[in-house]
Design a protein that fits this description.
Length: about 250
């Protein structure tokens, strides 16, 4: 069992229970533990335990009904737009279908984000993106983390829009990119992002060219879609075996 974070016991309990629910630790007809059992298991007060259950209820994983206690909700009611839920699902099993759907959603978000950034980016917003590019270059020299520097660019793009709603997507995008980037790098056979392609997006934003900025992001995402399709074909079983479109990332 994972140990909850003692500096934030409530979130530690959320992390532990959420991961257990998503991975099926409470399966079949097993009832969800009562409050007293949860308090004993995590060494937590009733207040901390109740707050954790409320947080998991807000994420769609649990529900509490009068005289029925707390129950686990079916997967189709889970909030996939919650960064924690998405991360737990991706930790449970890597699904190419889930990643493909997420990338399709990115196509509806990030090209427009680039267009907005080209119109509204402030000096601070541009500085954040320039810093991300420098981090990506440093990663190419082995002086920074390739994954984190790539994520920093896409997060910077959201913030450069000047739109608070786009900025709120940081957690969701970051959570899924951790898996997406690992897959695409593995399929490409490299561990580094294409700095040049990312720099073209930034150059278009600096030049205040919304169309070119948007098209640059579309090209980045199209490569991801193409690589997912390559992974799908590679994961197809031989004739006569059951189809499982699940690819392990090691």
């Amino acid at each position: 069992m994972r140990k909850p974070n003692r500096q934030n016991l409530t979130y530690g309990i959320v992390e532990e229970i959420g991961h257990a629910v998503v991975t099926g630790a409470y399966g079949g007809d097993d009832p969800f533990p009562i409050e007293a059992e949860l308090c004993k298991r995590y060494g937590a007060s009733r207040t901390a335990t109740r707050e954790a259950v409320k947080m998991l209820t807000a994420k769609g994983l649990l529900s509490a009904r009068p005289r029925q206690g707390t129950r686990i909700e079916p997967e189709d009611r889970w909030n996939l737009l919650d960064p924690d839920v998405l991360r737990w699902i991706l930790e449970r099993k890597f699904s190419l279908e889930l990643l493909a759907e997420f990338t399709e959603m990115r196509l509806a978000i990030e090209p427009m984000a680039a267009s907005l950034a080209a119109r509204h980016a402030t000096e601070d917003g541009l500085a954040q993106m320039h810093k991300a590019i420098e981090r990506m270059r440093a990663a190419a020299r082995g002086e920074d983390d390739p994954l984190l520097s790539d994520i920093a660019f896409h997060v910077g793009l959201l913030h450069a829009t000047g739109n608070r709603f786009y900025a709120q997507l940081e957690g969701l995008i970051s959570a899924a990119l951790r898996t997406s980037i690992r897959l695409t790098n593995r399929v490409k056979g490299v561990t580094l992002a294409d700095v040049g392609a990312h720099k073209k997006v930034l150059d278009a934003i600096v030049a205040k060219n919304p169309k070119r900025a948007s098209e640059g992001v579309v090209m980045l995402l199209q490569e991801v879609i193409d690589l997912i399709e390559v992974a799908r074909k590679a994961s197809k079983p031989a004739a006569g075996t059951k189809s499982k479109r699940v690819l392990k990332l090691v």
